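Task: encode each sequence below as structure tokens.

Item 1
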Amino acid sequence: MKTLIIADDHKIIRDGLKSLISPHSDLQVVAEAGDGRRAVELVRELRPDVVIMDVNMPELNGIDATRQIVSEIPDTRVIALSMYSDRRFVNAMLKAGASGYLLKDCAFEEIIRAIKTVLNGQMYLSATITSQVVDDLITKKAGENESTLSMLSNREREVLQLLAEGNSTKEIASTMNVSVKTIESHRKNIMDKIDLRSVAELTKFAIREGLTSLDT
């Protein structure tokens, strides 16, 4: 029996995936998460074989959640689930360590195939991800056109996302279980590194870089 966790901030998506997976006796959904932070916590606790991970989620996006999961629990495979075929998101998820990438408009048709593929140690990309995107991922030289986002640490990316989603410094400190002073230090470092001086500018930057979205 292979175990799975579904991470998506839309309950209707989670319910749909569970309904699709449930007839397969060799697969079991053991937990669900509505945000990336909860997904990481559940993976640490349950050590599933596969996580189906939405790319865009509140509190902690799927890219950074995947990076944490793959770093801490490398035996767990992550399949990205997204409405975006933009190469930024595909590239970021695969760099974070995802073993597959599915688009939401075809996930219900392909999800079982993708799960079986990554469980066999192979990578699965949705057929609608164009060859141009795949070629770009394969041939792109290391460091070429490196995103400004890459200058930020993992913790700084977490703080940036939470700031962009409208959380106060005190709320972020509580969420991340650190002091307000630590968050203020992270915020200053973020602003210095990317040369932005207001929360509005930080929010625009976070949306442009795919850390969050206006509809999260």
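Item 2
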Amino acid sequence: MLKKYFKIWLLMTTCVSQIAFLSRFGAVLFIIGKFLRFGFFLLFLIILETQTKGIEGYNLWQVIFFFATFNLIDTLPQLFFREVYRFRSYVVSGQFDFFLTKPLSPLFRSLLGGSDILDLSMIFIAVGFIALSATRLEGITGLSIISYLLLIANALVIAMALHILVISVGVLTTEVDNTIMLYRDITQMGRIPVDVYREPLSFLITFVIPVGVMATFPAKALMGLLTLQFMMISFLISGILLAASLAFWKFSLKNYSSIST
């Protein structure tokens, strides 16, 4: 079954990639824009760190590591779940009806209907800065590396759950674009450690809207700044969110009103 779905995902990704490269100039501009946005914010962090006494007690390389980790966690869902950004057109045009009649999971088709390989460039940049900044950090152990990787995977589960919630809302209301952009705007708060935000905002974006669990916890785990208790809480949050999103997806399908009816 997994092999079958992988082949389908690979086929759809190939088709989407061919469309993306129809305009090579546009693809190049897209990648350059991504690099510029990354570079300008990185420059802002460097200036902020060097002109102040530090950001919440973190040194420059720690701040860069937080930022690089955020970009990895932010870009991977865009790479794999890019179909969510096209989902509204499927609902309003009635094409979503065909998703429901095909011998393929409509959730799989709606989430993983073709990845955007243009985002690979940002993933390489993020991984490069993660590796570079990690060599400047102290106290890294084999256990902290494993914890980091597990929390990265946990962050992707949370991101998947939130994308499922977005398309579930789209099934019920046809509203997707504003919802997904709201998700993107909120997650941008994770570009810096959530410790810098005052209470109750810090608590809100850490546990209620789990930006901190997604973006800050993995980096803290590698630095040895995250307790086992908070790691367990992060896995609990992802499990609850995933279960809730799947339940809401089933509810939305039961209440879906086809464009053809």
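Check on item 2: Residues 142-173 form the longest helix (32 residues). The mean pLDDT is 88.
End of task.
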